[in-house]
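Subject — a protein and its fold
Fields — amino acid sequence, structure tokens
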Amino acid sequence: MSYILYSLTLLALVLATALYISRSRWLPLLPIPEHLYHRLPSSFSSDVESGFTSSNFDLTSNVALGDSRAGLDQQGKRDIQKIMKSRKIGFDEARRIITEQRFAKNGIRPDGRPEDPKFVSFS
């Protein structure tokens, strides 16, 4: 009896490992409802169409010049999109909030000065 249990456990472990390693191939084939998952754009033209641009952060020049890079940072876009939807604010305001959160995480005040008490500035 223990031999069968050991064999089934080993088979399940090998199968789970194989599925985890090959997830990039089979995960896009799963029928995920649209309201649960929104694929982020992966080029500058898609970023412009999705609203990740403004007069202060203009991506249209990148599109006009035929920039072939992948577009904006995926994690940053995800964070900005989440803030835009939850707080119902625009792109510039969401970008400002993300920047201030990153500043606070790295010990920088919202005005751009470090919080380090030993900081000395000569200006």
